[in-house]
């Protein structure tokens, strides 16, 4: 019985000795933190991403935008592909873009679920979302022609960048890696990536 009383006293003494503080709920360091978080909306586009990012630290550098190569695909004649994973290649017009005859002697890149803006030969690192937002996107094909063609202009030489815009407002970039008119086209697909 004596040991039981000693243990009970030891346990109660432990609780009072090792208690860290009297406040169960910590308060914000400054009143402005509470005011700022009161204005945050997780669905409002005007809320800065730094305020809704759960890992945000006040001294952390803001996110930077880059284009990341996510896929390289060779499309044969009358084929199409999805611009998102798993980048399925199927018979035209099953995908987001397609490669087929332009109705004449040569081939063209056709939009099926996206719209296009041909940026010509450009450096992908120089293209920003802000640049793309001011461009005009169309549902027209982009024609290709073999080098040295007498009466056709090749709008898809190697190195050409084609911007794609979805109905939801997402942007993707296509880079012509290789081409054999009228046979096939090899494209690099880029998605926008944010890094810290």
Structure overview:
The structure is a single chain. The protein is α+β, with helices and mostly antiparallel strands and 196 residues long. It has a domain at 64-195. It contains four helices and ten strands, in the order αααββββββαββββ. The protein has a five-stranded antiparallel β-sheet with strand order 1-10-9-8-6, with no helix packed on it. The chain has a five-stranded antiparallel β-sheet with strand order 3-2-4-5-7, with no helix packed on it. Strand 8 (160-165) and strand 9 form a beta hairpin.
Summed up:
By secondary structure, the protein is of the alpha+beta class. It has a domain at about 65-195.
The count of strands amounts to 10
Strand content of the residues, in percent? 25-35%
What order do the helices and strands follow? HHHEEEEEEHEEEE
Major sheet size, sense and barrel closure: 5 strands, antiparallel
Q: State the end-to-end distance.
A: 63 Å
Keywords: Signal
What is the fold's blueprint, element by element?
Layout: H1 2-17, H2 31-38, H3 49-52, E1 64-76, E2 79-81, E3 89-91, E4 97-101, E5 107-111, E6 115-121, H4 129-133, E7 142-143, E8 160-165, E9 171-180, E10 184-195
Antiparallel strand pairs: 1-10, 2-3, 2-4, 4-5, 5-7, 6-8, 8-9, 9-10
């Amino acid at each position: 019985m004596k040991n039981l009383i000693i243990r009970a006293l030891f346990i109660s003494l432990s609780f009072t000795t090792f208690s860290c503080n009297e406040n169960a709920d910590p308060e914000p360091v400054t009143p402005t933190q509470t005011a700022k978080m009161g204005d945050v909306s997780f669905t409002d586009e005007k809320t800065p991403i730094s305020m809704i990012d759960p890992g945000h630290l006040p001294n952390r550098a803001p996110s930077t935008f880059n284009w990341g190569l996510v896929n390289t695909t060779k499309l044969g004649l009358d084929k199409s592909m999805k611009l998102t994973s798993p980048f399925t290649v199927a018979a035209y017009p099953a995908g987001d873009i397609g490669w087929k005859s332009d109705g004449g002697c040569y081939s063209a890149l056709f939009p099926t679920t996206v719209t296009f803006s041909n940026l010509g030969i450009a450096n992908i690192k120089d293209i920003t979302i802000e640049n793309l937002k001011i461009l005009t996107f169309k549902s027209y094909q982009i024609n290709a022609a073999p080098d040295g063609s007498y009466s056709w202009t090749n709008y898809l030489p190697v190195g050409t960048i084609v911007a794609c815009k979805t109905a939801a407002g997402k942007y993707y970039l296509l880079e012509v890696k290789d081409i054999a008119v009228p046979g096939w086209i090899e494209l690099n697909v880029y998605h926008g990536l944010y890094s810290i």
